[in-house]
Amino acid sequence: MKKYFLIVMFFLASPQIFGQNNSAEWIPLGPFFHNLNGYGYVGRVNCIVSSPTNIDEIYIGASTGGFWKSTDGGKSWRCTSSKMPGGIKSIAIHPKKDNIIFAVTGLYANGLLRNGHYGYGIYTSVDFGETWSVVDMGILPEHQIFMSKILFDPSNSDVLYAISLKQVYKSDDLGKTWEILNFKANEGESFKDLEFLNSDTKTLFVSGDGCLYRSNNGGKTWTNIYDNLIDFKTRVSLEITENDLIYAICNDSIKYKNYVKKSYDKGKTWTSKKIRLTGTGHALSVESFNDSIIWVGGVSLYYSDNYGKKFIRKSNKIHADITNIFYPDKKNPNLIYISTDGGVNKTTNGGKTWQNINGNLNINQCYSLAISELDTNLILTGTHDNGTYKLDSTQKWKHIYGGDGGTTLIDFSNSDNIFLACNRSLKLRNLHTKKTKTILSMPTVYDARIYQDTKNPSIIYVPSYHKKKRRAVLLEYNILKDSLPTIENSFCIEWGVISAMAQGINNSNVFYFATYDHLNKRYFFINKTEDNGKIWKRLDFSSHADEKITDIEINNRTTDSVWVTFGRFTDTLKVFATTDGGESWENLTYNLPNVPVYAVEFYEFQNLLLIGTDLGVYFLDEKSEKWERYGKNLPFVTVSDMKINYFTKKIFISTHGRGIWEIAINEQ
Fold first, then answer.
1. How many CB atoms lie within 10 A of CB 141?
2. What is the pLDDT of residues 594-624, one digit of tens each?
């Protein structure tokens, strides 16, 4: 059994041990459902299904927010997977015993810095999704378990098939044991979809990025039929009707060619129709009553009632990026559910009108967190695909900018000034005047953090990237002068990107920077200056050159005391500390689980060291040299950012999948 499986089992089965700092409970703050001009903004949903015996019992899989259940047709929701790490990519319900549910975890999302882009394998429930246990497949690699889909064999409900990005798995005993089929994706291919032929369930199809395969014998052997379908690189999604008519949506995200194709002969030959589909389509559904009616989802939703000869855009009041289209009731063609990057929608009139059924879902993927000690009610966060939000004294979240939200910052000297990254640009907004200006079109990822000078609040430091010089640069934005010069420095390397930085409180001339090789994905150095950038020193972290430093924390009282965190999968490399300004380092990893760490905070009044990981928040008990989970009620979720409000004595975290949470610091 793999070591990583043992780690997951330990956290699922073991009681949580709470010390003196663990009596308080984490409280979810949202952002909860937000309706902007009829569009729902609540977070990304990968898939939606319903019970075959009760269509009002709906299950959804959030991208990194877990498994959610509704028993009233979407009016209210409840997360039942708080002890299940990771997001849900696909859900399969037993066709005869609907209390049995399987879910696969994992989300591949282009390697963004804080995106939780891996999975923990397969989970199963025998009580309608109320409780879960991990399935010991015994064959999965550590850490990179990109599961894509799971299905029951329609002719034998003891048989399950599942796909990862590269392989196909089969179980003949309802998930107790698994085998890897003798079939693997080639270089440049990845599996995303799995479908059965209805008249002969021994015939399976696997499709995805640049591939389409067919097996006629239950997965024993496979035939590549991709060349029969298309002549350019594309992602292929399939839908097979009860009459064995196969629909395929093919799209080229580079050239923006999009086709809906259909085959009447098991994929040997195809007829084709080019469609004007915005972006990359990836959702496809056919009405079970009439296989001439097709729904296709990309950025928008499209409809055809003539076998794909003509499509009509149907995306009124639907959030962009359609992920799943589902008919819950085979007797009612007018009832359709869709999942999107903004939540869940429902129609009861065949798609003429749609309504949000996001209710109390709390699944926003937050990249950042900003708080203010001048206005303790003010919180900002940027979210993936759902924009930027503000919480203020009204205790209601307000959607203040759309698109992809990223890093956020509140001016500590004037809480009316806020900074937010959206759609790869950095903006300054005044909450009082409502004026917004674009400071920078950022060439780096939109979740890169920005920093305010600890002594001069008019200075904002922006890690960026100089395309011509092919290296990281630090930009210094002056609020008063509205200028954005580049700070020349010696800490940057060719192809380098700044992954983390920190500035001293008691001595603002001291900076620490972590850089990495963006091109080759190699992680290198911590750099330090003690004279505001005149002279730089490269600290010795050469033995950890392939690791990504995600955060740096400097002790408020002395700049010689520093902590750094690492965001990859070396089980002995999670947290390091120095008390002599980086001359020597102590490994504080101890008993931490082998998952990335993204944030670190030190609360000096209790000598409390806190870290945010892919499994929640931990604190270090120095006496026992043991890490323990901090507080109660926090799900196993990726913590992307963490802040301490010294005035209210509260800890705030942003999570990549479950929104913003707070907890009161126990002063006992």
1. 12
2. 888 999 999 998 999 999 999 999 999 878 8
